[in-house]
């Protein structure tokens, strides 16, 4: 008694047809946009390499934390207390925006692009897509770093945010709606930091006798920076350093 071949490749060879299960599903609207971006901008020389570079800078907001730390160090050397506060706020705001995006990701749980037509150009720490943490932290950092540096508030966001958003699409790790939502959340995070500065720190600058408000602002800054340090033991070790970094000089 002869048996029929169960090899699907034999069926393809005989019929010329691919089994239905192996045919990719139709592209969605956002997947079509990704494929078009990768075939257009993403195909230009150097674009994918530059996109990977931006990915590394924005990973976990570490690049923005490093820039904020460097800005704080320069301001401290100059003895500029106000600039020190703003650089600290830039670092805390960028990391806080990143943390907010991670929380939202775990709630929404949208998978990253996975269609065979979308080329994935970089590894990611999670499989969750919405919103883009890179877009979120970069937008917050661009607004707050520009503010700390004393630049026109539109300049750094205009220069930094669009390339970062585009890079996530070129690398195929986010949908357009992921990066758009991330930018909106980042802008809201930066606005919250700026409002917090006016509410908590402005009174301490106008009224030197306002020791209670000054201490409250100091504690909040410490909490924000300590949250950026992973692990309980590391937080404990970092606390004395953070306390010294965030100690405000008393007004004369």
Top keywords for this entry?
disordered N terminus; 10 helices; elongated; mainly alpha; 68% helix; disordered C terminus; 252 residues
Task: Briefly characterize the structure.
The chain has helices spanning 8-15, 29-39, 47-58, 62-78, 81-108, 133-149, 155-170, 176-206, 211-227, 232-245.
Can you put this structure into words, describing what you see?
The chain has 252 residues and is mainly α. It is 68% helix and 0% strand. It is built from ten helices and no strands. Helix 4 (62-78) runs antiparallel to helix 5 (81-108) and helix 5 runs antiparallel to helix 6. It is elongated and about 65 Å long.
Question: How would the blueprint of this fold be written?
Answer:
Blueprint: H1 8-15, H2 29-39, H3 47-58, H4 62-78, H5 81-108, H6 133-149, H7 155-170, H8 176-206, H9 211-227, H10 232-245
Structural class: mainly alpha
Provide the succession of SSEs.
HHHHHHHHHH
| Biggest sheet overview | none
**Cα gyration radius (Å):** 24 Å
How many individual helices? 10
Helix content: 55-70%
Q: What proportion strand?
A: under 5%
How far from one another are the termini? 102 Å
Poorly predicted spans: 1-13, 15-20, 228-233, 248-252
State the shape: elongated
Strand segment count: 0
Mean pLDDT comes to 80
């Amino acid at each position: 008694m002869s048996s029929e071949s169960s090899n699907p490749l034999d069926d393809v060879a005989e019929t010329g047809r691919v089994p239905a299960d192996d045919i990719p599903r139709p592209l969605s609207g956002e997947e079509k946009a990704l494929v078009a971006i990768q075939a257009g901008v993403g195909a230009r020389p150097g674009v994918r390499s530059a996109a990977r570079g931006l990915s590394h800078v924005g990973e976990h907001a570490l690049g923005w934390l490093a820039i904020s730390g460097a800005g704080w160090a320069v301001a401290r050397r100059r003895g500029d207390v106000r600039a020190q506060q703003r650089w600290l706020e830039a670092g805390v705001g960028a990391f806080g925006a990143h943390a907010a995006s991670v929380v939202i990701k775990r709630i929404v749980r949208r998978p990253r692009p996975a269609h065979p037509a979308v080329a994935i150009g970089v590894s990611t720490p999670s499989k969750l897509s919405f919103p883009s943490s890179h877009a979120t932290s970069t937008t917050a950092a661009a607004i707050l770093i520009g503010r700390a540096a004393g630049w026109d508030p539109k300049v750094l966001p205009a220069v930094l945010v669009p390339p970062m958003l585009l890079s996530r699409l070129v690398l195929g790790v986010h949908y357009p709606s992921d990066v758009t939502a991330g930018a909106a959340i980042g802008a809201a995070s930066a606005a919250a930091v700026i409002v917090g500065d006016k509410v908590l720190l402005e009174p301490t600058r106008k009224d030197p006798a306002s020791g209670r408000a000054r201490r409250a602002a100091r504690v909040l800054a410490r909490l924000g920076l300590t949250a950026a340090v992973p692990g309980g033991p590391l937080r404990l070790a970092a606390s004395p350093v953070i306390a010294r970094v965030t100690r405000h000089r008393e007004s004369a």
